[in-house]
Each structure stands twice: as C-alpha cells, then as structure tokens.
C-alpha cells in the first residue's frame, strides 16, 4: 500500500481505506464535458503522530476553488440564522472596544461577514479564492474581499494595507479545505492581536466516526478535524485551543476557540471533549480499521436498497445536491440507471450532471413538484428538518417515500 507524508507533521502515513478514483465533489459539469472530468485517488489516513485525519492525495486547490465554484452558503436559510447567531455572540464579546477588525478565511458569498459590513466600529475583511462567490459577497455588502488563498504571506499584505491586526479571525467550514494548514496557523499568529481570538468551525471527526457519516470525506474536505489534532498543531505555532462548542450542523460540527498562548485558560468542557475523543479512540489505528468496515457495509446496503427498488420499477429521484453526496453516489455505485435525477436550488449546479461516471442530471428544485417520483433520496440529510417542513405535505399527498441515507438508512412517507 502506498505510503504518504502527513501535511501537518511530515510523519509517514498509511491509508486505511481507498475510495478509488473519485471526482472533485463540486465539479458539476455540462453533458458535453463528460470526458474532461478530473479524477484523483481518494485514499484516507490518520497520522499516528499528530492524529490528523486527512486525504493522502489531493487535487490542485485551483481545480477546486475557482471562478465557477458551485457552493453558495446563503442558499440555506438555516445556515444564515446559524452564522447570524455567531456574529451576535462576537459583537457582544467585543462591544466595549471602540473599533474592531474581523477577518474571515474562506468568506464564500458573504453569509457571515454581511452581519458586520454595515457597522462603523467593525472593519470586515473576507479572504475568498473563488471569484464568483467573492463577487457575490459584494452584493451582500461585504466591501473588503481579497480573492486569494489565506496564508502567512497574505497576512503581511493585509496588515500593510489596513494598518491593523485582527481582533477576530474566523474560519467557517474552511479549515478542512486548506492544504497548508501550517501556513494558516502561522498567518493567524502573525495577524491576531494579543487579546484577539481565532474561531474555526468544521465537521467533527468525533461525530463522523461515531455516526459513520463518511460522505463528509471528499476532495474539498482534505481534513476532518478533531480537538486532539488541532490542540497539537495550534501549540506548534504559538496558539492555544482554550474552548470549544459542539452543534448539529452538517450532521455534527465543532466550533474551536484559539488564543495566543497564555492568554486564556482551557475550559472544563474543552478538556472533557478531548477525553471523549480519546475514549472513542481517535488516536488509535484500530478505530479506523473498524470505520473502514462500517463504510463498506453502509455503501453496499444503500446500493442494494436503491437497486432493488429500481428493479421493481420504482422511480427514484434525489433532493439536494450537496458536495458530500458525490462521495456517497460514486462510492456506492449509484448512477442514472438507478436515480433518474436530483433536484437542487443552486444555479451553478442546475442543468449539469453529477461529478463522476454516474451521469445523473441535476434539475431545478422548482420542478420537483411537477415530477412523479416513487422515492426521493434526501442527500442533504443534515437539513432534514428544514427540507421536510417545506416538502413533506406534498410528498405525503402524492405517496412519495423519503430515503434518508445518513446516519442510518431510513425510509418513510
């Protein structure tokens, strides 16, 4: 088996599972471009030294984050509310300061920073490498958007341009997208005020292993973080993990709080969660061997369910086309012979096909109620509450059954 190097500590790593040739998760394509798709070997490992869960090989970042990037965070009302609540919390914490600077790493379409953009005492700066979503964020009122990848070198340019360091640096579902995480932490150390805080929020390794939600693993998610691994890397760069909060977003996320070393003491809940991670075995190789078995079993099970229904003449569609469903569809061998089409409300995906060899078309969610389906797979299963509230009365009336693929496969009206 191929051995690679950990991108955090340079230790030798050996993959515990090979997903095979996989496309970039958000690389939805027009039918004519089927043969132009890019594939990479998606192998996954956990480092035995720093316990970082990571892809062994990753595509060039420019192939993933570009002027045609397909993910617009603001399409979810739930996420708009989620980030507004966090912005309110930050404003309250820094309310006594005359002026504050906040920098967001991977600001996407401005879903978070728009909550600060029209407040005089706040300077909001976004760093976003994808031109199309960065451009859209300006319509949301975010004036200062730098189209680039965040790293140490860029922080020196920001300090020079804005004549200020940051009171808050934040990364919302972005740290798992960045290959050179060492440069990010070095950059945050450089640009963060001595009393400032660094906040990240990403899918939780603890929750993914516990629930077997392996659809979180794809090209753009080159890492799945644990408090154990982030504690190690932050100390390496003079920062300190002092607190964390867990939530149910994306099927289970953790929000981490960092400061300059020595500024805050670690909270009890942070210590307790690290203990929970160790009890689950996130620092042990045997945990990942068991995880591999669960992934394969689930993949075979979802394929059999969909195949058997299709074989009985049932028409199966999908609802929502999140990036993570690319892993589930391709690894589970689902294709256009089994799934007729998937409905989504993201303009950058509508009229295109799912990444990979499956040839599943993506149609507008506005057409969902015009279509006759027997079963609908809800790929954005983490938004089940929001979506079923919107569509369940219609599907009940039409006797359409829902298939929830994660964490456990469920079928109901």
In short:
The protein has 11 helices and 19 strands. It is α/β, with parallel strands linked by helices and 413 residues long. Helix 10 links the parallel strand 14 and strand 15.
List the helices and strands and how they pair.
Elements: E1 4-5, E2 12-13, E3 17-23, E4 39-46, E5 53-55, H1 61-64, H2 77-93, E6 100-105, E7 122-127, H3 131-139, E8 144-146, H4 152-162, E9 166-172, H5 181-191, E10 192-203, H6 205-211, E11 223-224, H7 227-236, E12 239-247, E13 253-260, H8 268-280, H9 285-311, E14 316-319, H10 324-331, E15 342-344, E16 362-364, E17 375-378, H11 384-397, E18 401-404, E19 410-412
Parallel strand pairs: 6-7, 6-9, 7-8, 9-10, 14-15, 14-17, 15-16, 17-18
Antiparallel strand pairs: 1-2, 3-4, 4-5, 5-11, 10-13, 12-13, 18-19
Helix pairs in contact: 4-5
Write a structural description.
The longest helix has 27 residues, at 285-311. Helix content is 32%, strand content 23%. The chain has helices at 61-64, 77-93, 131-139, 152-162, 181-191, 205-211, 227-236, 268-280, 285-311, 324-331, 384-397; strands at residues 4-5, 12-13, 17-23, 39-46, 53-55, 100-105, 122-127, 144-146, 166-172, 192-203, 223-224, 239-247, 253-260, 316-319, 342-344, 362-364, 375-378, 401-404, 410-412. Helix 4 runs parallel beside helix 5. By secondary structure, it is α/β, with parallel strands linked by helices. The chain starts with a strand and ends with a strand. The protein folds into 3 domains: 4-57; 73-264, Vaccinia Virus protein VP39 (Rossmann fold, 3-Layer(aba) Sandwich), CATH 3.40.50.150; 287-412, Rossmann fold (3-Layer(aba) Sandwich). Helix 3 links the parallel strand 7 and strand 8 (144-146).
């Amino acid at each position: 088996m191929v051995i690679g190097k950990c991108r955090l500590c340079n230790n030798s790593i050996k993959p515990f599972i090979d997903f095979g040739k996989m496309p970039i998760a958000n690389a939805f394509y027009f039918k004519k471009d089927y043969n132009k798709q890019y594939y990479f070997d998606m192998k996954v490992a956990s480092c035995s030294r720093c316990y970082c869960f990571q892809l062994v090989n990753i595509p060039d970042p420019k192939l993933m984050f570009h002027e045609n990037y397909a993910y617009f965070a603001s399409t979810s009302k739930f996420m708009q509310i989620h980030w507004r609540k966090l912005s309110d919390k930050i404003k309250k914490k820094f309310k006594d300061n005359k002026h504050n600077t906040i920098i967001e790493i991977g600001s996407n379409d401005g879903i978070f920073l728009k909550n600060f953009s029209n407040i005089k005492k706040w300077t909001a700066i976004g760093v976003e490498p994808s031109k199309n979503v960065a451009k859209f964020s300006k319509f949301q009122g975010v004036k200062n958007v730098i189209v680039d990848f965040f790293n140490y070198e860029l922080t020196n340019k920001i300090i020079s341009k804005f004549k200020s360091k940051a009171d808050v640096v934040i990364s919302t579902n972005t740290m798992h997208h960045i290959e050179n995480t060492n440069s990010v932490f070095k950059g945050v150390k450089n640009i963060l005020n001595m009393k400032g805080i660094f906040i990240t929020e990403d899918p939780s390794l603890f929750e993914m292993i516990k629930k077997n939600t392996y659809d979180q693993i794809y090209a753009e998610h080159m890492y799945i973080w644990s408090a154990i691994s982030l504690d190690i890397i932050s100390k390496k760069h003079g920062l300190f993990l002092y607190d964390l909060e867990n939530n149910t977003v994306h099927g289970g996320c953790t929000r981490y709080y960092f400061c300059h070393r020595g500024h805050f003491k670690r909270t009890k809940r942070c210590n307790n969660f690290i203990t929970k991670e160790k009890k689950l075995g996130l620092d042990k190789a045997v945990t990942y061997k068991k995880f591999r078995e669960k992934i394969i079993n689930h993949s075979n099970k979802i394929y059999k369910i969909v195949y058997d229904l299709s074989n009985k003449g049932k028409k199966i569609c999908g609802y929502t086309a999140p990036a993570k469903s690319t892993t589930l569809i391709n690894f589970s061998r689902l294709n256009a012979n089994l799934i007729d089409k998937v409905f989504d409300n993201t303009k950058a995906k509508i009229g295109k096909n799912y990444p990979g060899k499956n040839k599943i078309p993506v149609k507008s969610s506005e057409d969902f109620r015009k279509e006759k389906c027997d079963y609908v797979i809800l790929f954005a299963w983490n938004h089940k509450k929001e979506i079923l509230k919107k569509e369940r009365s219609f599907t009940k009336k039409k006797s359409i059954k829902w298939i929830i693929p994660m964490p456990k496969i469920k079928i109901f009206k």
